[in-house]
Specification:
Blueprint lengths: L1 E6 L6 H10 L4 H8 L7 E10 L2 E10 L2 E2 H17 L1 H4 L8 H7 L4 H9 L5 H21 L15 H16 L4 E4 L2 E5 L1 E4 L2 E4 L3 H6 L5 E7 L5 H10 L2 E2 L5 E10 L10 E9 L1 E4 L7 E4 L4 E3 L5 E3 L2 E3 L2 E3 L5 H4 L9 E12 L7 H10 L2 E11 L3 E11 L3 H11 L6 E9 L2 E8 L2 E10 L4 E6 L1 H11 L3 H19 L1
């Protein structure tokens, strides 16, 4: 499994995370082409190698209509001062020169951001991951301002730079084929920060709520080390928090922050590699593979039990208990993960609404959503709505399912998923490059591949041929690649 570890010893912001992923080798030109499918005008994204405390890092710079973030901030503050001095004389009039400033500073609503991202040419995975980050922020802001998430109007986070940061990070993670993201504990600083709602303590109120459940390490630094965007990225994308898990590093990149801290370089380090898995026998002829060297232990009575360890703010069970494995054979070599299902039965809702419900569930963090036909009491035909998610996204899915459907209640159940170890590869076809998922289970003699449908669909549209032909060509190329490597 491909894993990314975010080492946030100096904090995290959107531009730092994007810079680190670009420094790992994500192609800037391809990223800009992907971001270019968003209906945003006048932006420029560039990178610059810099030194932080004498150490290399990559600085991401985003300009809108030729104006950088720093220049805009200075202009906005000067404009605010002038506006406050002359408020009585000028009321709330603004010149037309401020039009592009509104994109940065006044931001957008959740509905506008959803429309912007959904209408882009990005893959469904990138869209869902990006919208999940924005939705989590909307939930927090909505609770703080006594509004529904959909009614929230983002300020700084709705600006062009933050949109490009968040979407760009999701794109880079997909580019590298990252399936799991782990964050280090985040530094906790103090001080004050100026934002759209005035002068606020550090961490800003929204940031503080977003960090609920995230391990924090106190520092003496005065200044914002974790931005709202950075906190949302960690809260939504992070499956675990703690030290770097057992892994084989393949790529390392560093993204530079803007400020200078007195006791550490202001940079974020990302390590991308493959999960190191250790086969651990249970003693009951049912060996399992335990990630990050978590162990299946035995209690005093000699009965097998799964050791559930506290990993930061998450409880992670890395291998199934022997009781769960009773009656199973040949399970060694699989990857096990604790997930949750959120379900409800619906017999009184217009079926046309299910497409929207499914989209909202994916935005809230669902890994999969499915609908089943049911026959309920009183001889009513109905639908069963189910969603699979990471355990930390359960509350978000419960909220979304109750808000978006007519159901009066939902069922939540923990599930243990066994999956084949997999990786993402790229194959050449006569239509162009297509990514394929490669799954291997050596213990059972399984080796298979499947083309990524988003790539197939995009290549079919570009080439003007049926998607079936592109799919078959990619599948054939993938199988030939596997045969040549066997």
């Amino acid at each position: 499994m491909k894993i990314a570890y975010f080492d946030c010893f100096a904090g995290i912001a959107g531009d730092m995370a994007l810079g680190a992923l670009l420094d790992c080798g994500a192609p800037l030109d391809e990223l800009k082409a992907a971001l270019g499918t968003l209906e945003l005008e006048g932006w420029e994204l560039s990178t610059q190698p810099v030194l932080k405390s004498g150490i290399h890092a990559l600085k991401v710079r985003i300009a809108l209509h030729g104006e950088s973030d720093e220049q805009e901030l200075q202009r906005v503050r000067a404009h605010a001062d002038e506006h406050s001095h002359e408020h009585n004389r000028h009321s709330h009039e603004h010149s037309h020169d401020d039009a592009h400033h509104d994109e940065h500073f006044h931001g957008r609503s959740m509905a506008q951001i959803r429309e912007l991202i959904q209408g882009s040419g990005l893959s469904e995975t990138v869209k869902a991951k990006s919208l999940s980050v924005f939705w989590r922020i909307a939930e927090v802001e909505g609770a703080m301002h006594h509004k529904a998430p959909e009614e929230i109007h983002f300020h700084e986070i709705g600006g062009v730079d933050s949109i490009l940061d968040i979407v760009g990070i999701a794109w880079c993670l997909e580019y590298f084929g990252v399936e799991r993201v782990v964050f280090s504990p985040l530094p906790y600083s103090s001080g004050w920060v100026d934002c759209a709602h005035g002068r606020m303590p550090v961490p800003a109120p929204a940031t503080q709520v977003l960090l609920r459940g995230v391990p924090l390490i106190p520092t003496d630094i005065q200044g914002e080390m974790v931005t709202p965007t950075g906190a949302a990225l960690a809260a939504v994308l992070g499956s675990d928090f703690g030290p770097m898990p057992a892994m084989t590093p393949r790529l390392i990149g560093s993204g530079a922050g803007t400020k200078e801290w007195p006791d550490r370089p202001n940079m974020l380090r990302v390590v991308i590699g493959d999960t190191l898995e250790i086969a651990v026998p249970t003693g009951d002829n049912a060996p399992v593979r335990a990630r990050e060297a978590h162990e299946v232990q035995r209690d005093s009575r000699g009965e097998g039990r799964s050791d559930v360890q506290r990993d930061g703010a998450r409880e992670v069970q890395s291998a199934p208990s022997v009781g769960m494995l009773s009656g199973l054979s040949g399970v060694e070599g699989l990857e096990w993960k604790n997930l949750a299902t959120v379900e409800c039965n619906i017999d009184d809702m217009n079926p046309e609404i299910f497409a929207s419900v499914s989209a909202r569930l994916f935005e809230a963090g669902a890994l999969d959503v499915w609908i089943s036909n049911l026959h309920m009491k009183k001889n009513r035909p109905a639908f069963g709505l189910s969603a699979l998610c990471e355990t930390e996204r359960t509350s978000a899915l419960v909220t979304a399912m109750l808000r978006e459907t007519s159901s009066l209640g939902v069922r939540v159940q923990p599930v243990l998923r066994a999956s084949l170890p997999r990786e993402s590869r790229v194959v050449e076809t006569s239509y162009g490059k297509v990514r394929v998922k490669v799954a291997r289970w050596a213990e059972a003699g399984i080796l298979r591949c499947a083309p990524e449908w988003d790539d197939v669909e995009a290549m079919a549209q570009e080439s003007g041929v049926p998607a079936r032909e592109v799919y078959e060509a990619a599948l054939l190329a993938g199988r030939e690649m596997l045969r040549s490597q066997s």
